[in-house]
Design brief:
The complex is a heterodimer of chains A (about 260) and B (about 190). Chain A has about 260 residues and is mainly alpha-helical. Chain A has eight helices and four strands; from the N terminus they run ααααααααββββ. In chain A, the strands form two sheets. Chain A has a two-stranded antiparallel sheet. Chain A has a two-stranded antiparallel sheet with strand order 3-4. The N terminus and C terminus of chain A are likely disordered. About 5% of the residues of chain B have low confidence. The longest helix of chain B is centred in the N-terminal third of the chain and has 31 residues. Classes of the chains: A mainly alpha (about 260), B alpha+beta (about 190). β4 of chain A pairs parallel with β8 of chain B.
């Protein structure tokens, strides 16, 4: 009603088409019905009610609307005013009866956790999972690094080296150790430091020589003569060949002798 | 059966200790690895190209034991004194230094070294682990022939020799040769 009054005060004396009363008169009558008028407005409202049938009809409609609203409010109050304790006590009785047949109900873990979210047990559990995951990731990373899949160790660099211009890798490192060359191979057998190589390729014929007075080897490449195939003309069957990934450039492995 | 609570209970005791130690140790190892000398290291590659002249034995390389005593001593340049014993095992009368270069190459970087008479050596250090150094080598001669393409593991303070025979003007192969003496060592950057 107050809201209506505030709105109507701005409308001044606007007469609505379905009513003979102006908005100001309706507001006056509503205020009179609610008992909010002062002495002067009360006299005005009574004077209006005596003089105007429309005012009387309006005040009756206001009274009927007020009665309907009050009745509705009472109904809503009855519907919403539920006695929860009856339900709670009924549930307690049901639990007691069930306990006789099913045993005592135990509280579940989430209920306990909800009471102490930051308890020590909860912390330990969370930390155990987090630490275990971090440890596993660390071990995995170290294994990859040690295995050469990451970083700069030799196996991991094989792919880089192959991309850098070398093709047809022999996967594992090869140690080549031959004593002597040619006919004096038997005389030159001695302890030498092997040449460690992962792979070797040449367009010529490769020999690994071991000078008798030295501990290291010499890689000697004899150029391939024109028209000469992958093997030597004088001893083609003695040139071992493991594989050939490129017909023009064979994989060269050191020959034991010529 | 293997639900969360059971695993957490299993890991809660000893697992926590192990995981905690691992968490402390592995980052320390990683930090140590990052600050290791290898990460700030370059590889010093010294390449001496030697011209070998005068084939003494027409058919094969001598071995020193069988033929060395009967052969006259080869003339070896004083700059090649440290590898003279190795050169004596080859079958030539004279050894001269054709070129000598020393380059510093960071790990995993490729460097092209231009030698005499169009010879070219591509090097890429792969790793340096203690006294061992991994090196990718590609030797291309003046005619564009890929003489050698290999990935080797060098021992520090050792000279690796590789050589190839040259074709003379008369078409004879082996009258002269080119020998590369390669020294590799790791040096701090």
């Amino acid at each position: 009603m107050n809201e209506l009054k505030t709105t109507a005060s701005d409308a001044k004396d606007v007469i609505r088409p379905q009513s003979a009363l102006s908005v100001r008169q309706e507001v006056l009558l509503v205020a009179f019905h609610d008992g909010e008028c002062g002495m002067f407005d009360t006299l005005r409202a009574r004077y209006l009610l005596r003089r105007s049938a429309s005012a009387r009809a309006f005040i009756k409609s206001v009274e009927s609307a007020d009665a309907a609203y009050r009745a509705h409010a009472r109904q809503v109050e009855r519907d919403c005013n539920v006695d929860l304790w009856d339900r709670i006590s009924a549930r307690i009785q049901a639990e007691k009866h069930a306990e006789v047949f099913l045993g005592q109900r135990t509280y579940s873990a989430p209920a306990a956790a909800s009471e102490s979210v930051w308890s020590i047990a909860e912390w330990r559990s969370r930390f155990a999972w987090g630490a275990s995951g971090a440890a596993f990731a660390s071990v995995l990373a170290m294994a990859l690094v040690q295995g050469g899949y990451i970083g700069g160790t030799a196996p991991g660099i094989a792919a880089l080296a192959s991309r850098s211009g070398s093709q047809g890798l022999i996967p594992s490192a090869t140690q080549v150790s031959y004593a002597g060359a040619g006919t004096s191979a038997g005389a030159g057998i001695r302890a030498v430091d092997p040449i460690e190589m992962d792979w070797m390729r040449s367009e010529g014929r490769v020999q690994v020589l071991h000078p008798p007075s030295e501990r290291t080897s010499i890689i000697w490449v004899r150029p391939r003569a024109q028209g000469q195939g992958g093997a030597s003309n004088d001893s083609p069957q003695r040139v071992p060949r493991l594989s050939r990934s490129n017909s023009r450039i064979p994989i060269a492995i050191p020959a034991a002798g010529r | 059966m293997f639900g969360f609570p059971s695993i957490a209970k299993t890991l809660s005791g000893r697992g926590i200790c192990v995981a905690f130690v691992v968490l402390l140790v592995f980052p320390a190892l990683g930090a140590a690895d990052e600050s290791s000398p290898e990460s700030a290291m370059v590889i010093r590659v010294r390449i001496r190209a030697v011209r070998a002249l005068g084939l003494t034995h027409p058919t094969q390389l001598k071995t020193g034991v069988v033929l060395g005593a009967a052969m006259p001593l080869p003339q070896i340049s004083p700059a090649l004194e440290d590898i003279s014993e190795k050169l004596k095992a080859l079958n030539y009368r004279e050894y001269k230094v054709a070129s000598s270069q020393e380059v510093l190459v960071p790990l995993m970087k490729k460097r092209t070294v231009y030698l005499h008479e169009g010879n070219m050596l591509l090097v890429r250090p792969l790793y340096a682990d203690g006294g061992n150094i991994g090196l990718w080598l590609r030797w291309i001669d003046g005619a564009g022939t890929r003489v050698l393409d290999t990935r080797m593991h060098f021992h520090e303070r050792e000279t690796m020799l590789t050589g190839t025979e040259l074709t003379g003007a008369d078409g004879r192969v082996g009258e002269a040769a080119t020998v590369l003496a390669i020294d590799v060592s790791a040096a701090p950057m």
